[in-house]
Amino acid sequence: MGRNKPGKPRRPRNRVPRQLSLEELQPPGEAYDEWFQVEPGMDASRIQDPRVQGDALDIMHRLARLGPLYDYKVPKAAIFLDTVIDTGHLAVPEGPVDADAGRLIPIQDIAAAHPEFSHDGIRESIHRLHAAAALLVVTDEQHDVPFVRFVAKKPEQPGGKWSFIGDPDLVASTVCMPGEMWNELPLDVAAAVGFIRASNARLETADPAVYGTHNGVNGTKHARELFAAAHASGYVDYKGCEACPAGHLCTRTGKDEE
Q: Where are the alpha helices (DSSP H) in the chain?
């Protein structure tokens, strides 16, 4: 048996920090004021209570389907998002939500670009991005439709500041993503691009072990596969215009600046 040599204490083998859940990050807005605890294995088709009909029954069916995607704690925002997906479009604001300008991203365009994805597969990918805090849902009474806002930077601690793509005060060091990548790349690969670019902007190396702990990513091996696809796409190094600093993934294109 060997003797323990004096020196620095050994570091723990598992140094991967635990990723905060969407609920722990405390997203802003009334869409996150209410959370539903879903029982694993819940089957809404077995509900016999005659008082649970119409909209209430529809919500129960949605919660049963969404529960596993949100670790069985589903925000009201996820139900809004699910109903928006039913319309076939995602409403995305151009800049602040109150700027009265936005655009629609047709979900069928995403499906056409990726025939390997079923409609249900695309629905699940959008929800996984939401659960991973890559996008948030913002209710808007003026337009009577929930907006989807892509997150440029999520807080590192609960209750911290969220930054969204299109914010006028978005600092240069914050990473954003070009809108076209959501149509051209599988959603899980696009999310990996965002993680890598955010790490680069902080002068850090994107760690697949850390990314492998994110909701919807099945471990380090899967994370490495997503990173390889992200780099192959060209969007990791994408720079849309000369106004963007080196660590910035621009939402504009060079054509927009001409």
A: 54-66, 76-87, 107-113, 119-131, 181-184, 187-201, 208-211, 219-233
Token reading at 41: 């294995």
Query: Pairing between strand 73-75 and 89-93?
Result: unpaired
69 has pLDDT over 80: yes
The tokens 């925002």 sit on which residue?
A: 77
- Distance CA(187)–CA(210), nearest Å, equals 19
Q: Which residues fall within 8 angstroms of residue 44, CB to CB, at 6 or more apart?
A: 57, 60, 61, 63, 64
CB contact burial 165-185 (16+ within 10 A = b; e otherwise): bbbeebeeebbbbbbebbeeb
Query: Can you tell me which residue has the tokens 């991203």?
Result: 105
Q: Provide the CA 152 distance to its chain's centre, in angstroms.
A: 10
> In this structure, which amino acid lies at residue 29?
G
Q: Please name the amino acid found at residue 32.
A: Y
The predicted model scores a pTM of: 0.61
Distances (CA, A) of 17 to 14, 139, 152, 180: 8, 32, 21, 32
Residue 2 has pLDDT above 50, yes or no: no
Rounded Cα–Cα distance for residues 210 and 15 (Å) = 9
H/E element, 93: strand 89-93
CA distances from 120 to 66, 108, 221 (A): 12, 12, 25
